[in-house]
Amino acid sequence: MTLFEGQKNFFYEINGVFTEEAVARRLRALGLNDGTTVKILNRKRNGALIVGVRGTRLALGKHISSGIEVKEEKKDA
Fold this sequence. Notes:
alpha+beta; SH3 type barrels; 43% strand; globular; transition metal ion binding; Transcriptional_repressor_C; Fe-transptr_FeoA-like; FeoA_core_dom; iron
């Protein structure tokens, strides 16, 4: 599944970033690497996601979050 398909307050493990090379390189620099756990904090009307990763909040547009493959880890208790 992709990060864009994820639900709010769930944790996901990144399995791969499949976007343009420049975007993928920037996401890796921000800490979005394979095996990294991210939490979807909020979903905006325009399709953007607010995610928490390594203590930082990032906003990702629909195009970018649709190119990030993830697997579900667990729901926030």
